[in-house]
Structure formats: structure tokens, C-alpha cells
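Notes from the 1:1 (GR / supervisor)

We went over the backlog. Supervisor wanted to see one worked example end to end before approving the batch request, so GR pasted a single chain during the call. The sequence is below; no edits were made to it. Supervisor asked that the structure be written out right there so they could see what the output format looks like.
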Amino acid sequence: MVKLATPDLAREYSAWLRERISSREQAGTQILSTPFLDPFNDGIQVFLEPRGGEFLLHDNGNTLDNLSDMGVRIEDSERRQNLILRALSGCGVRLENGRLEITATHANLSQRIHFLITSILRLNDLWMSSISHRFVDFFELVAEFLDQKNVLYTPNVNIVGRTVEHQLDFVIPLPGRKERLVKLIGSPSPQTAKIISFSWLELREARPEAERIVILNDLRAPDPLENNDEDEQRRVSEQTISILQGYSSAVYRWSERDATQFSKLWLPS
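Structure output shown during the call:
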């Protein structure tokens, strides 16, 4: 039986980025166009402004503008503002005058760009329903579920990988000084799967004994304007699952949270 070669994700991911990233200068600001998509399937842009010996990186307000176009106005809700601040916590990204910003030096420029893009994607991921007037925080749902099961965990943990830091949604300690690293996906797609797999590839070297777990949301919240209180199943592509399974110890679907196998998330191996 011929054994298929495992793809070199690091090499393929780097090549994919190089082929699809472009930059241009406009009025002294460098604009980096990336292959990562916003909710309207437009490429996410990162703006770099020189500030003395440093750089101010920001999204030019595009992230919150897009959410506003979807019907999400954070200034109308303290809860939504808190959700955004929590999504940004641990990355060094801040919300200033409607923009997502982070400061960088020449030494950490690549890492800070990575942090900003990760924060933009995570913020977009908070509102995973296609129904603009239904807002659900997937992090909050999972945290509440773990609390109900009396699972000990640490939220929003940064771990240094081979080249950059990576933010984990939860770290669950296990006996024998082992641990489970948990990443959440509110809106599963091949794009988010590639980013998480890149994190797993790096953290596999930094934390070789740790288990790498993904919880993806395969449910869509019901439309409150319809007479329907049941969550609707969301189709997750086979490509997304395949990418995640390549570098994850386990991939769990939120729709199966009451199934017996879901308890393996916190039980010792």
C-alpha cells in the first residue's frame, strides 16, 4: 500500500501568502492587501503609518464599518463593546476612534501584522449568523458550557510559536503537566482552517505534549422574527474539515456538544 506524503503546510501556506499579498503607497501610508476576506468577501487591508522609529498599523476603520453595514452598531450596546474588547484582549490590538490599531517596530512588524489580521478575523467571527439582527458570541457560549460542566480552563492565552505568538481561546490543564489547547471557529471556512492549522504547526514544536483541539460552530441561530426557536444546521465544507484534521488532535462540532464523545474535550486521555 502506497503511503501518501503529508503536505508541507508551512511551505504551502507561505507560498500562498506571497502570491496573494500586495502593497502600495498612498500619501505616505503603506497599504497591504491580504488574501484574507471580510464578511463581504473583500480582501482585508492593513495600513502602515511610520511614527518615528515605529509603525502604527490599523484597519482604517473598515472592520467596524463592515459590521455597521451588517446592522451591528457597537455604540448602541455596552455588551457589544465588551465583546469587542474581549476579542481583542491578549493581542495588543486596541480600539481607537473606530479603528483597530497596534504599534510595531522593525523587529516585530510581521508578528504585529499577524496580530492585527487575527483580531480583525476574530471580530468578524463574533457575529457568525447571516441574520444581521441576531448576535451571538460563540466564545461566550462555549465558556458557559464549560462552566456548566465544571471544566477548569484559562481563557485568552498567548503562546509563542516558532515565528510568532498565537492566541488560544482556552487552555485546559490535564494530569501530568499536560494540556489541551483550544481554538474556536464561529464561522467555519477553509480560510480560518488554514490560519488555525498554521498556528497548530508552530505550536506543535513549542508545546509538543499539548493536544490541539478545534471547536467549530456548525449551527446557525434562529431568526427572532420567525416562529422558530430551533438552531439551524450549518453546512461545513469537507475541505474545511480536512484542513483542520491535518494538524488538529481533534475537531469537535458544536451541534454534538451533548454527545458522549464531546466529553473527551476535558477528560484525561
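Supervisor's comment: Residues 126 and 137 are 5 Å apart (CA to CA).
Batch request approved.
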